[in-house]
Amino acid sequence: MLTNYTSTLSKVRTTAASLLAIVLFASGSVHAADIGSLLDQSINGAHRSEANRARDRYRHPKETLLFFGLKPEMTVAEISPAAGWYTEIIAPVLKNQGKYYAAVPKVVDQMPESMKRRDSNFRNVHNWAKAGNAAQMFSGFFNVLKKGGILGVVEHRAAPGTSFKAQIDSGYMTEAYVIEAATQAGFKLLASSDINNNSLDTKDHPGGVWNLPPNLRDVPEQDRARYLAIGESDRMTLKFVKP
Q1: Does a cis peptide bond (omega within 30 degrees of 0) precede residue 22?
Q2: Separation of alpha carbons 61 and 67, rounded Å
Q3: 205: helix, strand or coil
Q4: Domain with 11 in it: what CATH number?
Q5: For 141-199, what is each residue's pLDDT tens digit?
Q6: Strand-pair category, 19-20 with 23-24
Q7: Three-point CA angle 18, 20, 22, nearest 5°
Q8: Measured between alpha carbons, how far is residue 79 from residues 83, 141, 224 in Å?
Q9: Residue 75 domain-assigned (yes or no)
């Protein structure tokens, strides 16, 4: 899978100046009010499905993309865009001045079913860690970015000190693991944000993060209301730069 990702990323190596994981942004200057307005138009656009709109209150797209520094003239490469929840927001912002690339792995028999269906995106660090290629992935992101390029990461967040096995089994990763993986590849942590925090998420669900919406995987009917009340997972939101 790494080969297929890096093949896509290599196409933007000469123009990318920044990565939202996930994603690549190029530098530029646009007034904050302008990008905010463009994001509002895209988020509220008629092209979006009601199912995707319903997730906005958990995923905070405007706040997240402003935190990462999205601008309409950027080159953006999204890693594992899946069914395109972020894509449908980012692409209209970039359509006139910027460029958008989707880094999508080739479907192979051994990959998780969720990846075959393209129904999981951004929050893929646990998949890379489980496959044993997280270090290679972050190195690939680093290599494709120009100096000053931004790597943005959103991932299900485990409690500090959670064992690696528990992280893999639950789908929640510690901030320490992600920061270590990124810094080992050469990135510098610029900032972290509480944008996607969810204090209701206890992170001790029997089926891991997949018990929570939108999956509600293997949740008995009598427990669905309780998990729906929690909402989507507690998530870290990290911004790295290539020095």
Answers
A1: yes
A2: 10
A3: coil
A4: 3.40.50
A5: 999 998 999 999 999 999 999 999 999 999 999 999 999 999 999 999 999 999 999 99
A6: antiparallel
A7: 140
A8: 12, 9, 31
A9: yes
Q: How many domains, the chain?
A: 1
Indicate the pTM of the whole model: 0.85
Q: Where are the alpha helices (DSSP H) in 56-199?
A: 56-59, 61-68, 87-94, 113-116, 125-131, 134-144, 164-170, 175-185
- Cβ atoms of 90 and 76 within 8 Å: the answer is yes
DSSP 42-72: HHT-TTS-HHHHTTHHHH-HHHHHHHHT--T
Write out the residue range of the structural domain in which residue 9 sits.
2-199+234-241
Residue 174 near residue 41, CB atoms below 8 Å = no
**224, containing H or E segment:** helix 224-230
Mean pLDDT across the stretch 49-76? 94
The confidence score (pLDDT) of residue 39 equals 97
Residue with the two structure tokens 């020095």: 243
Would you say residue 67 lies in a domain?
Answer: yes
Residue 22 has pLDDT above 70, yes or no: no
